[in-house]
Design goal:
heterodimer; A: about 150 residues; alpha+beta; OB fold (Dihydrolipoamide Acetyltransferase, E2P); 2 domains; about 30% strand; B: about 650 residues; six-stranded antiparallel sheet; four-stranded antiparallel sheet; 20 helices; 11 strands; about 10% strand; globular
Chain lengths: ~150, ~650
């Protein structure tokens, strides 16, 4: 091989390797995106059935209940308009409280209960997870809009 | 009065930074020696001023001056003194001050250890660092001033976030910042080289120790952050691929690539343009990391401020620094030249491949960290990228990189012979492959990832042994000891750092493969057994801390009837911030950690309890520490000191 050919083969190999790496990264990226949905979207059936996603909103006061095993908890996440029942087995984070914001990741069960694999509640008593805050803001905005229109779309 | 002195010192520092960022650069461009000579005193003066400001803020915290807004927001009269002092960097404004202070520290270090540098080079380096410091000081003084008064003064402070009230808070941020900011020296060297148009092996030799020191600090800083999260967050994870962690990991990946690329530039004069680009990249990512974490873009324990003015300033600053240096790079890089050629199979090509892999890995982290932010900013919806993405990407990217890590140090520069390499390494491969396949069966469980992890770790160690053996046999000397002593420290440093990676891989592999995590409901007197250890919940009692109340559990751990340890996990309630905190209790060991943390009180006096058995987890941080020690060993090598002495002698 001439040095010129060698150089080209080196560059070719490098580019091929880089291409494979990028394809790999993008593929993994595509299949591991976790989308966020509001309780309204969940109730309206706009969510995927076959992959996990996140929901967020307020933990409705008075809905937190514990099974006799002490570990399985039930609560309702709401965006003030629609409510989604959630079940989670495990220890809740320190900042999880009724009446505060929370985000849960998991799948939707057949009966419409959200089966959470992870519950996130972050680090400050006044802090509302941005996803939860947005879900509530969206629901409020939607509520105002529908009350202003007289035409009811089917 | 004291806060005003601090504020005034910052304003003066800004003026000095303006001078330091302009006159020496002008002097270097026009060859005016008296202008260049301004750099050194300016850098030292600026250091003194920022030190004064830093001490003033410290004093405000020490005397509980709640008429300073920042103090009132981050401390409390009941907070112990060492945490009050650590609260200096507990939030946005103070951590920027810490950043600037450390930048000044590095500047002074440059003035002290740069006697061997040409005058113009030193002037340019200090000039560039002065400009960076100018940006930070301006940022602080315009939108993020830690000395703002609160009138009327608050009767008491809002207290430091309980998560941050931990010894980790005292050390982790300064360490991490030493690393981040340390890359500014490498960056300044690169910009100086671009401005001066000369980038030779001597340049690389000068910047190598600086880069390695910064890298060591960053390595330790990240490891400490990980360890802190492990025991403080109360659920036993050590790396979450949280954006905040990614922000520190990206500069580390770029910095690691930079260290290796600098080695090629130093030894062979190659990779010049690439090295400069990596230096710019490493520092840009450090800046990005600082701002991502501290600007409130990422909402987490690390981020406090959310002020649009700050965001705008940060974006502009990033655009100027990164855009400006890349423009300069595009303009001047062709002058620097590519450096020497090499064969497709050579140590250079392997180092290049490793560099590319590291940069691709860095890019994948960048994608996973920034993409959700972009989507959110553009209003296209909220998504998150979970740990599975990073796990899927990192294993295939790091596997070839670590394979090459064993191969590279053995291959010859310029042109290596592949069949000969295979012959030299056949034992290393055979031993590591055999052990990696069989060992998991001995341990009681086989998975492909377990074997792969062990294979990579063993491969790194066995190739290092082969390499050392070959190196020593080629030396002439009477005894083994004299031969070993003749091997340069830089070489030992490299091998040690590589072995640190191996230790880290063992830790990660064993934890992922064999950890047992269990959430259970336990009443007083109940026992649970995991991983061969029996945990007995003995009692729970109330406890008063300085600024919290706590419930403290007592767990007696036995193994096969013999006593192992007693653990005291706590559930704390911090009064001022009205916040509950879990303090895990951990018994650390060389081959396993036992981890207990309290969940919530349940009916009938029972508690939900987390019990973890984590084999080899301390190897993860041990590996990082070994890497850092390897780095320190490498920079203590004679060649750097000899080079300096020779130049000093020539100058005299």
């Amino acid at each position: 091989m001439t040095p010129r050919k060698k150089r080209f083969s080196l560059i070719g190999l490098g580019l091929a390797g880089l291409g494979i790496a990028v394809a790999l990264v993008l593929n993994a990226f595509q299949s591991n995106l976790v989308f966020f949905f509001t309780p309204t979207q969940v109730v309206n059936g706009e969510v995927p059935r076959d992959r996990s996603f996140r929901i967020g909103g307020m933990v409705e006061a008075g809905t937190l209940a514990r099974d006799s095993d002490g570990l399985t908890v039930h609560f309702v996440v709401s965006d003030t308009v629609k409510r989604v029942p959630v079940v989670y087995k495990g220890i809740l984070p320190d900042l999880f409280k009724e009446g505060k914001g929370a985000v849960a990741q998991g799948r939707l069960g057949q009966d419409g209960t959200f089966i959470a694999s992870e519950v996130l509640a972050k680090h400050d008593e006044n802090y509302m997870p941005p996803e939860a805050a947005e879900a509530i803001a969206k629901a409020k905005a939607a509520g105002q809009q529908s009350s202003k229109t007289l035409v009811v779309t089917p | 009065m004291i806060p005003e002195i601090g504020h005034f010192a910052l304003i003066l520092a800004l003026c000095v930074a303006t001078i330091q960022g302009t006159l020496p650069l002008l002097g270097a461009a026009s060859g005016n020696a008296s202008l260049m000579a301004v750099a050194k005193p300016a850098a030292r003066g600026q250091f003194l001023l920022v030190l004064i400001a830093f001490c003033c803020l410290g004093a405000a915290f020490a005397v509980n001056d709640f008429s300073v807004l920042y103090v009132a927001a981050n401390a409390n009269s009941k907070l112990p003194l060492h945490y009050r002092l650590a609260a200096i960097w507990g939030a946005h404004e103070g951590s920027l001050l810490l950043w600037t202070f450390i930048l000044c520290l590095w500047m002074v270090a440059v003035t002290l250890f740069s006697r061997h540098l040409p005058e113009a080079m030193r002037a340019r380096i200090l000039g560039v660092m002065g400009l960076v410091s100018f940006g930070f000081l301006l940022f602080m003084l315009t939108v993020s001033n830690p000395f703002l008064r609160l009138i009327p003064a608050a009767p008491d402070g809002r207290d430091l976030n309980p998560l941050l009230q931990d010894p980790g808070m005292v050390i982790h941020p300064p360490m991490l910042y030493m690393g981040y900011v340390g890359f500014s020296v490498a960056f300044a060297f690169a910009i100086a080289a671009l401005l001066g148009g000369n980038l030779d092996a001597a340049w690389a030799r000068w910047s190598r120790p600086w880069t390695t020191v910064a890298w060591c600090f960053l390595t330790v800083g990240i490891a400490m952050g990980s360890g802190w999260a492990y025991y403080e967050l109360g659920w036993g994870g050590w790396w979450f691929w949280d954006p905040v962690e990614n922000a520190s990991f990206m500069p580390w990946l770029a910095g690691t690539a930079l260290i290796h690329s600098l080695a090629v530039t130093d030894k062979r004069g190659g990779f010049k343009v690439w090295t400069v680009l990596l230096a710019i990249l490493a520092f840009s990512l450090s800046l990005l990391g600082t701002f991502l974490v501290r600007s409130g873009v990422l909402t987490s324990v690390h981020a406090f401020a959310t002020d649009p003015k700050r965001g705008l300033f940060i974006l502009a600053f990033l655009a100027v620094v990164i855009g400006g240096s890349l423009l300069l790079y595009a303009w001047r890089a062709p002058r620097v030249g590519l450096g020497g050629g090499f064969d497709p199979v050579s140590r250079e090509s392997m180092l290049l491949a490793n560099n590319v892999l590291l940069v691709v890995a860095m890019g994948s982290v960048l994608l996973g960290t920034l993409y959700p932010l972009f989507l959110d900013a553009l209003g296209l919806g909220k998504i998150s990228v979970g740990p599975p993405y990073f796990d899927t990407v990192f294993v295939p990217l790091m596997t070839p990189a670590i394979f090459l890590m064993g191969l590279g140090p053995i291959a010859q520069w310029k042109k290596a012979d592949l069949p000969a390499l295979a012959v030299r390494l056949r034992w290393a491969f055979g031993v590591s492959f055999g052990t990696a396949v069989l060992l998991p069966f001995v341990l009681g469980k086989w998975t492909p990832l377990l074997s792969l992890g062990l294979l990579l770790a063993l491969w790194v160690v066995t190739t290092a042994v082969v390499n050392v053996r070959e190196r020593v046999t080629h030396l002439t000397g009477d005894s083994l000891m004299t031969k070993l002593a003749a091997v340069p420290r830089a070489y030992w440093g490299m091998q040690l750092a590589h072995c640190g990676i191996a230790v880290l891989i063992v830790g990660v592999t064993m934890v992922k493969g064999f950890e047992v995590e269990q959430d259970v409901r336990m009443n007083i007197g109940d026992t649970t057994t995991i991983g061969g250890y029996t945990f007995k919940f003995d009692s729970i009692q109330d406890l008063m801390g300085p600024n919290y109340t706590a419930a403290r559990g007592t767990f007696h751990v036995t193994k096969n009837g013999g006593d192992v340890t007693t653990l005291y996990p706590e559930k704390r309630f911090y009064m001022v911030q009205n916040q509950t905190m879990t303090e895990a209790a951990i018994d650390s060991g060389l081959v396993r950690d036992l981890y207990v943390s309290l969940g919530e009180p349940l009916q009938g006096g029972a508690w939900s309890v987390r019990l973890y058995h984590k084999p080899f987890i301390d190897w993860i941080w041990g590996g990082c520490l070994i890497m850092a020690i390897g780095g320190v060993l490498a920079i203590s090598d004679r060649r750097y000191r000899l080079g300096w002495r020779r130049e000093q002698a020539a100058a005299a």
